[in-house]
Amino acid sequence: MAKDLAIVLNSGGLNSAVATAIAAQKYRLILLHAEGAGVSSPRSRVTYDQQVAHYKPYREHSISLPYLAAFASHDQAPQPMPGDPRHPSVPVAQMIDLIPLLAGAVRFATHYNAARIYTGFRVGPTGDELAKATEYGQIWNELLQLPCGQTELEIDSPLLELEPWQVVDVGFNVHAPFEKTWSCIEEGSEPCWACRGCRAREMAFQQAAKPDPLRGVKK
User: Fold this and answer.
1) How far apart are CA 211 and CA 149, in angstroms?
2) 3-state helix, strand, coil in the chain (%, to 5)
3) Binning pLDDT at 50, 70 and 90, where does residue 120 land?
4) Dist CA 61 CA 191 (whole Å)
5) What digits encode the pLDDT tens for the residues 92-104?
6) What 3-state DSSP class applies to 33?
7) Is it the case that residue 80 has pLDDT exceeding 60?
8) Angle (nearest 5°) at CA 124 between 120 and 129
């Protein structure tokens, strides 16, 4: 296969859409969607399928991670207090959740001889959190390139150090299909605009001074 292929982890969410649009500027896309309790939902699957129709990737695949159902309650657990050594910080927890997804992406990347793996992983510009996440990415790339022998394969998280409003701003610049994304934690046919996911999305668009196309699609 040609080296112009990139694997993109896509959850159907806003970050995924922007990361996919960035990857599409340089590569032909292979979209990868993980399914399993705590990883995906029926509603996010709908928006993933909409993004597949929008981007028209070279290939698209779904991977099943049913064993993660055992940890699904983690998503509803209260956030740990800062500095509590009994619980990982939010960025560290995100990194742990990302490991099985990256492992699946690496297997597809080696099959297709892809040049890049893109993720929408984001922690923001905070010093300690960003430093940990950056080191995490470097370790993964070294693991791929040295013991795994994938000397030309790299994992790219282009949104890593951005604030949510900056993700929205970048998304407009790369023509990300925001109307084909889902941020609501509810499973209704329309966003509730009251949950933490909807509120965070609304604040990001407001701070970016951009209109949310989803507001025009869903009343």
Assistant:
1) 45
2) 50, 10, 40
3) very high
4) 26
5) 677 777 888 899 9
6) strand
7) no
8) 105
Q: Which two tokens stand for residue 100?
A: 């099985």
Q: Cβ-count burial of 149 within 10 angstroms (0-12 exposed, 13-18 middle, 19+ buried)?
A: exposed
Sign of CA pseudo-dihedral 60, 66, 67, 72: positive
∠ Cα 56 60 62 (to 5°): 145
Fold of 5-176: Rossmann fold (3.40.50)
d(CA 141, CA 169): 28
User: For the chain, how many residues are written?
Assistant: 219
Coil, strand or helix: which one is 110? helix
The domains of the chain are located at 5-176
Specify the amino acid at residue 63: I
Residue 184 CA, chain-centre distance (Å), reads 15
pTM: 0.86
CA torsion, ordered 86, 88, 90, 95, to nearest 10 deg: -160
